[in-house]
Design goal:
alpha/beta, Rossmann fold, 8 helices, globular, SDR_fam
Amino acid sequence: MLLDGKVVVVSGVGSGLGRAIAVQCAKAGADVVLAARTESRLTDVAEEVADLGRRALSVPTDITDDAACQNLLDSGLAQFGRVDALVNNAFAMPPLSDLATVDLDDVRSAFDVNVLAALRLTRLFAPALAERSGSVVMINSAVLRHSRRTFGAYKLAKSGLLSLAQSLAAELGPRGIRVNSVAPGYIWGDNLKWYFDYLASKRGVTPQDIYDETAGTLDLRALPEPEEIADTVVFLASSLARVVTGQCLDVNGGEYHH
């Protein structure tokens, strides 16, 4: 029960990693505030949290909107009276196009969600987090570790998020707030399973063949599950990581070493 009695706010809650983060935090003893634009997704995850004996508050939120973010903070404090951790998990896929030709408006739009929204939420929640010597966790990506074509805008956004986390760690550390990042690689969830099914049908092989081929490039020979990524978030939000700040922890089964 690493988060026993704590309150964790999770943005970008959906059926994948956001759900896993909320559920694993609840299993660790936390009550959770769930934020996403789609209310039905929040309802499903809130029911899972309740089944674990913890409390969940669903707050439909557009994290690019100042008023909506303020409502998220106010609602969480009104319900629970405290916030111990903020997990910035919301994500918008940047355009997968070479930087030499990419539409700059699309890059700006993705940057607004992936970087500026995380800054917006963290600034708003900072006073409440300071009262609890709280923690912020940014969900980043293994795209930080490579420079493949068409991933330039993606890497640009995630590199910006990493710089944001490191700078906030320096700024907020004197107030007792820790800021860290988690960088997953492959996540063996619904989206990746669908993609592997697609690749298998295109190549005339089985999805298990695609899995084995991909996992063979990882040291541990297995693709991380959403819950395994989420457990790292739980660690960083807990007192076990009480002197860890400004760090980016790669959670990729050994795909890249950093």
